[in-house]
Amino acid sequence: MKGSPHRGTAAKRNWSNFDTYQIPRFSWLPRIETILMDNPETPASGCGEPPIVNMGAVVANAVFDAVGARLLQLPMTPARVREALKRG
Predict the structure, then answer these.
(1) Which of 66, 57, 55, 53 is closest to 15 using CA atoms?
(2) Domain boundaries, the chain
(3) pTM, full prediction
(4) Distance CA 31, CA 22 (A)
(5) Which of 11, 62, 15, 67 is CA-nearest to residue 1?
(6) Closest by alpha carbon to 19, among 62, 83, 79, 76?
(7) Do residues 87 and 27 touch, judged by C-beta distance below 8 A?
(8) What are the tens digits of pLDDT across the range 25-71?
(9) Cβ-contact 63, 78 below 8 angstroms
(10) Cis amide leading into 75 (omega within 30)
(11) CA 4, CA 71: separation in Å to the nearest integer?
C-alpha cells in the first residue's frame, strides 16, 4: 500500500489496538511554573494562559489525522472514538 501507514486509509485499516491505547493524561505534562512580577510602572493587565489549554484540540486533531474520526467532546474515550468512526 502506498503512502504513510499513519495517515488516511492505511491507518483506518491498521488501527487494531485502540482498546489498549493510553489516553494522554495531565500527569504526563511538564510542570509549568508561573511567576508574577510586580512592576509599579506598568498598569495591571492579564497574565495570559499556559499553552496546555488547547491540548484537547491538539489530541482531537491527532485522532482525526490517524483514524478519520472527528471528536468534539472531552474526554475522548475509546467508546466515543468508536461512535465517531461509525458516523464516518
Answers:
(1) 66
(2) 1-15+53-88
(3) 0.43
(4) 20
(5) 11
(6) 79
(7) no
(8) 878 877 877 777 788 888 877 666 666 677 888 889 999 998 888 99
(9) no
(10) yes
(11) 22
